[in-house]
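Complex record, two chains
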Amino acid sequence: MYNSGVLSGGIGAGGVLAGGAAAAGGDLGALPFSGLGLVWFVVAAFALVMAATALWRIVPRTQA
Amino acid sequence: MSVNTQSRDTSRLPIPERSGVSVPAIERALVIALIPAHNEEAQIADAIRSLHEQESPPDMIVVCADNCTDGTARIAEDAGAYVFETVGNEHKKAGALNQALDRLLPALRDEDAILVMDADSILVPTFLSEAQKHLRNGLGGVGGVFTGRSGGGFVGTLQRNEYARYARDVARLKGKVLVLTGTATLFSARTLRHVVWARAEGVLPGRVPQVYDTNVLTEDNELTLALLHLGYKVLSPKGCRLTTEVMESWRDLYRQRLRWKRGALENLRDYGLTRVTVRYWGRQILTLFGIVVTLAYLLSLTWSLAVDGAVHVHPIWLAVTCVFVAERLVTVRARGPLQMALAATVIVEMSFDIFLQGVHAKAIWDALLNNERKW
């Protein structure tokens, strides 16, 4: 069949990022104990940024 | 917008002479629906019916039967469409559309409009009237907001949730989209002629003076970039809704997404870094970063379990997780309580996201190494 390419640029970023961030937020407490301090910092920062975008997506907004 | 009353040259329309068909002698702007179809006998009638049921139906429906070996052409004719059979087309959907548009565009006036839609799309009755209204306001193209039809079992359910979230996002952004999808988009003839001219002049990639670039995997994404680079705006308003098929197996979904994601990357590579593409590049980089972070997270969890024999959960990160759970729940509300319950488990949809991240990583890898493309 013929398909569209919308998700490549649309959901691709939004959905995957939210998923990745959910993964990051799920059990971050483990990381400091793994000895991977830098990795922990990067993952934590990313998770917090994604949490902010998740909040933005929750907030009610007028729809077109 | 004034309507040019100059008569149309109908001699080059993509319609067989035996049909004795000509473009309707109407002085107002025409709307012609163009449906590329490759072995779509199971769905083409429904797509055509949804066009007949429009509040403002198209003046003509043309099905581009591309290398069909089934009953697509016969069913399309029975459903009231004109059938244009491609000749020697080796460029899939883009090639089929180009063959039809090469003959169609010279026969149309600037004000006329062309709806390009997939054979598995079913439009809501307001689609065309709504799209025409926006197109008259000077947009380059007006696209559809799609949701997934039933079928496909569990993998279909996950896609329908994904599409529902996409539709919600588009509505919250008041119709602003990154891509005018091939599922259904209305263009003016003037805009498409502008694209053809720009390719011929080397202003846009493609070089060949045709509407669609046949060298790309995602021709709809490429055409959107083309329109944006020519200064047009694009929109997918709420009234332009449609339903489309979902992939019915993980293998099909993998192939579909690999093509979409690699296609999008290669489109960006073709256009380079421009004022238009900078936000697309930004999303690509964020997505790549998301993949790396997810990988790091999973590896560190494994490490922690292997070394410590346990994972340590901190309240702050539990709170963050709750935000993500809420986001998953709220954004899928349109799909009903059952899907909200599925989203609440997090782990199920997270697995789907990790699957998509894996496909994305493969697409990057293939694009970097220029591996053989598979449609």
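Note: Confidence is low (pLDDT under 50) at residues 1-6, 16-21 of chain B.
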